[in-house]
UniProtKB/TrEMBL annotation:
Belongs to the peptidase M16 family. Residues 223-315, 708-882 form the Peptidase M16 C-terminal domain. The lineage of its organism: Bacteria, Pseudomonadati, Pseudomonadota, Alphaproteobacteria, Sphingomonadales. This is Peptidase M16-like protein. Pfam families: Peptidase_M16, Peptidase_M16_C. It comes from Novosphingobium nitrogenifigens DSM 19370. Keywords: Hydrolase, Metalloprotease, Protease, Signal, Zinc.
């Protein structure tokens, strides 16, 4: 399986359907030859020698690798070849329920000890310790920091008990089923209904149509300890399991550990046969040239219109050969060409806001070509016709060689960057790559091999080959489609069939110019500047530079991450500089500003300019600054700096990106009413700042008043204001980068002064009764937040880090009450926010989703925990559960440049950030019970709480 980065991301709800449907660990059909690693049987893809493969006598397969990124960490993945497609009708949800029960009680871990045990070993629950169940597999994931020999041995011991010898008791099942039902409730809603309905249409006649891993209320409530054990014993077997380990340990040690703890695991009985997942079938009597099958209209008043279609072919196991991968590359190029044409149309005056095509092999159930279309307005039929016309053109006429070369240039950089940065590949990512390869029954290759295969394949990318692959991708056994719409009057199933089968004229005008545009062709930004001053900061070799025009920079050339450079540019005044009456343009700027381009170059020109390069135009808005950011490489650094500087020197004002952003924002707004957590995501940012409109999501009425002219008025002034800081950390040459800075940012003219800061956020005043918001989703779901005001400003940075520890102690207690004891909430969250750039606005907050009837229990639990923490210090055990994971988290992060840049950006104007960094590990991982109690007494007062609850409209 040669990994291929997708240039165009999938959009629409089909992507959600696939996320939980494409995982399946492989099972060897025959014993591999001794000299061929089991993953590579039937493949001529060169084996990556850094992976060590083996099979234990009991049939358990393993693959291990030494990797030191980050130092001291070992990543373990245990793959059980069992998912929701293995269940009978009466067992629906069992595979996922077992995932939960595995953490509850096992041979070496009793009564919910798993989470606290790994927390004290430094692993954070939910990120370092997790599991997931899909239709075809269950994967247990552990990233163990500070993997000392004793910790590693203890970890394999505990995992062996969880996987091979879990203990299923009536009490455990009765405790965990309500938690799974709470998880089910959190996933329910309009989007979940659409995913389920779409799956039912696309995979009609196959088990996948009705096999969501979450199960059903009826089957879960009927589960018993014995019925769950029977399911576990059938599928959890050593010959049905793969263990992947990648990390900072010798491979012989890793093999010895998994052999020690998993080697005596014995299977019971004969291995059961794999279930039959079926295959897509065309309707009897359908036209073989146009085999349209099931279609459906799904009415969801709170969701925008989306048209999804799938051209389906039977899934079959492939031999993952070089020739197979070359074919995949041509497929990817064919789809990339169509996606580029669709995106170019969407940027103009198209009938659709967005559209994309993709190909995916789904859950061993189908090989699918997927089409997703978001119409610009009510007229979905025209949008479908226009997208089909673009596809028809690709099916009729081969692409030009120039078009192919443009895509190949993109492919080249996508394959070459991993070669340049392979020394920085994290062990967890490498382990996940193996999991995916086992899942889809294909192989892995190191970046050098992938790139070599690509380069040797270049003669195969002919216009005729691309045309043939395009036609193959859009040919299948059956085509099915769904329309998601807020109005039942928009159409019916027959209308969809007509839309799919009506003749369309090939849109030959959709082809995008393939001529190249080079940075060498662009004008200079002005007279280059000079270095006015340069001093070493005294920390890690970081240099502070000031250019002759006042631009400042932090530079840290280092070889910690070969081939990678991170660039951050800070300028202007952020939200504080935006007039509240212009608040609508804050969100629009976040979406559309960079797509407007610069000088005479629009978005399409920028794409041409970036062809074959690793360049970014990312933009964000902070409390007191705006920011550009990029992750680039040495060969592209100079041009990346030019892009950012040119955006400030001569911004372009194209109305099309603004109009597209307005349309997208209007379409997305209604969906924010579809579930309680969506309402909170929409409203909390401004409510927590006492209603500051700059942090609000604009509603359709406000968006209707916004114009491209207003957008320019606001952002043209904002881009001219305030000082500029450029921070560059990574693998670069200092002198060459100084010269590039002088040519780019050093050539910018004088900046307008910033207006006085007008941002003083604060939590609303205490309310005895919660503020009530409403949602239009499931009547059995609600959400709630309780918050206490804290503080803000850099002067309180040390206290802010201690508050983070307090929030984790609070979360552990809330988790125990709301999830473990009463099963009311699946994942309650507690966090502390302390803005460092403004002197106020901090808060300590607990949030959860739950049933309306459990709201009182949540508020009571939160208030009791706050009171208890104020009345008595937490135990030493509670302290250990939060300090050790934080210590390990910071230690791991500090091995990469991103951590230091996150902490120090802005330090050229605010030198205090440097000494503040030196105390972060101590502040964040060392505390005392008394210090935690003192913070609780200082901030968690019952008469300062602010509460909000989100109820169903009809509750």
């Amino acid at each position: 399986m040669v990994s291929f980065p997708r240039r165009i991301a999938r959009i629409g709800l089909v992507a959600s359907l696939l996320v939980g449907s494409v995982l399946s660990p492989g099972v060897a059909s025959a014993a591999p030859a001794a000299h061929v690693p089991w993953l590579y049987v039937g493949s001529d893809v060169p084996h990556d020698p850094q992976w060590v493969f083996g099979v234990l006598p009991n049939g358990l397969r393993y693959v291990v690798r030494h990797n030191g990124v980050p130092p001291g960490q070992v990543s373990i993945r245990i793959i059980a070849d069992v998912g929701s497609l293995y269940e009978t009708e009466a067992q629906r949800g069992y595979a996922h329920l077992i995932e939960h029960l595995t953490f509850r009680d096992s041979k070496y871990l009793k009564g919910g000890e798993a989470i606290p045990t790994w927390q004290k070993l430094g692993a954070t629950f939910g990120s370092d310790t997790n599991a997931e169940t899909s239709p075809t597999q269950t994967v247990y994931k552990l990233d163990l920091p500070n993997a000392t020999p004793p910790a590693l041995d203890e970890t394999f011991k505990l995992l062996s008990g969880m996987i091979a010898a879990p203990i299923f008791t009536p009490q455990g099942v009765n405790t965990e089923v309500p938690i799974v039902l709470a998880e089910m409730r959190e996933r329910e809603g309009a989007e979940s209904r659409v995913v389920d309905a779409t799956r039912g249409v696309f995979f009609k006649g196959q088990p996948l149509a009705a096999r969501s891993p979450i199960g059903t209320v009826a089957t879960l409530q009927a589960a018993t300890a014995q019925s769950v054990k029977d399911f576990h014993d059938k599928w959890y077997r050593p010959d049905n399991t793969v263990i992947v380990v990648s990390g900072d340990a010798d491979t012989s040690v890793l093999v010895a550990e998994l052999t020690k703890w998993f080697g005596d695991w014995k299977a019971v009985g004969k291995k059961p046969p794999q279930p039959d997942f079926g295959a897509p079938v065309a309707p009897v009597g359908s036209d073989p040239k146009n085999p349209v099958g099931e279609t459906a209209v799904i009415v969801e008043p709170d969701l925008p219109r989306v048209f999804n279609a799938a051209i389906l072919r039977p899934w079959h196991k492939v031999n993952d050969t070089i020739v197979y991968n070359q074919g995949n590359m041509i497929d990817r190029l064919a789809l990339s060409l169509i996606n580029r044409r669709l995106e170019a149309r969407a940027r103009g005056n198209a009938s659709f806001l967005a559209a994309s095509v993709d190909e995916n092999r789904i859950s061993r159930s189908a090989d699918a070509t997927l089409i997703t279309i978001t119409p610009l307005g009510d007229d979905w039929k025209t949008a479908v016709r226009d997208v089909r016309a673009v596809i028809a053109d690709a099916l009729k006429t081969p692409p030009s060689r120039e078009e192919i070369q443009r895509e190949l240039a993109e492919f080249d950089v996508s394959y070459k960057v991993p070669v340049e940065t392979q020394e920085t590949q994290a062990g967890s990512k490498l382990a996940d790559d193996i999991v995916e390869a086992v899942d889809i029954r294909e192989t892995v290759a190191n970046p050098d091999t992938v790139y070599a295969i690509f380069r040797k394949s270049l003669p195969l990318f002919t216009p005729e080959a691309v045309l043939a692959h395009t036609r193959s991708l859009f040919t299948g056994t059956v085509e099915r489609a769904v329309l998601v719409t807020p109005k039942a009057s928009d159409g019916n199933a027959q209308d969809l069939r007509v839309a799919l089968t009506s003749p369309v004229d090939a849109a030959s005008g959709s082809r995008v110019a393939a001529t190249t545009l080079k940075f060498a062709d662009l004008p200079a930004l002005g007279t280059p500047g000079k270095v006015a001053s340069s001093v070493m900061t005294g920390l890690l070799g970081i240099e502070r530079v000031e250019l002759s025009n006042g631009v400042r920079a932090l530079l840290w050339p280092n070889d910690a991450e070969p081939g990678r450079i991170i660039v951050r540019v800070r300028f202007g005044g952020g939200y504080a500089a935006i007039d509240p009456k212009d608040a609508v343009y804050a969100q629009l700027g976040d979406i559309a500003l960079m797509d407007c381009g610069f000088g005479t170059l629009g978005r399409e020109d920028l794409d041409r300019l970036a062809t074959g390069r690793k360049l970014s135009l990312d933009f964000d808005i902070g409390d007191t600054t705006f920011g550009f950011s990029a992750d680039t490489r040495p060969a592209d650094l100079d041009d990346q700096l030019y892009l950012f500087a040119a955006k400030l020197a001569s911004p372009r004002w194209d109305e099309h990106p603004v109009l597209r952003a307005l349309a997208a924002s209007k379409l997305q707004y209604e969906s924010t009413n579809s579930a309680p957590m969506k309402v909170l995501q929409r409203d909390l940012p401004w409510l927590l700042r006492d209603g500051d409109p700059r942090f609000a999501t604009p509603n359709p009425a406000e968006l209707s008043k916004a114009t491209p002219e207003g957008f320019r008025r606001v952002w043209e002034a904002l881009l001219r204001q305030g000082p500029i800081e450029v921070d560059i950390f990574g693998d670069f040459n200092r002198d060459k980068t100084i010269a590039a800075l002088n040519r780019t940012f050093g050539a910018l003219g004088a900046r307008d002064p910033l207006s006085p800061m007008k941002l003083a956020p604060h939590l609303p005043a205490h309310n005895a009764e919660p503020l009530v918001l409403t949602h239009r989703g499931d009547a059995n779901t609600a959400a709630a937040v309780v918050a206490w005001p804290t503080g803000g400003g850099r002067v309180g940075v040390h206290e802010s880090r201690q508050l983070e520890l307090l929030s984790q102690i609070f979360q552990n207690r809330l988790f125990d009450v709301m999830r473990e004891k009463i099963g009311a909430s699946y994942a309650p969250q507690v966090n502390s926010a302390w803005p460092l750039d403004v002197p106020s606005g901090g808060y300590f907050a607990a949030m959860t989703q739950l049933r309306p009837g459990d709201l009182a229990a949540f508020f009571a639990a939160a208030e009791k925990i706050a009171a208890d923490l104020s009345d008595a210090p937490p135990s030493a055990d509670e302290i250990a559960r939060v300090t050790e994971p934080m210590k390990q988290w910071i230690t791991r992060l500090s091995t990469g440049n991103g951590f230091y840049l996150d902490q120090l950006q802005g330090g050229a104007f605010e030198p205090r950030k440097f000494p503040d960094l030196t105390s972060i590990l101590r502040d964040s991982s060392q505390t005392t019970p008394e210090a935690m109690q003192a913070l609780a007494r200082r901030y968690l007062h019952p008469d300062t709480t602010w509460k909000v609850e989100v109820l169903p409209e009809k509750h």
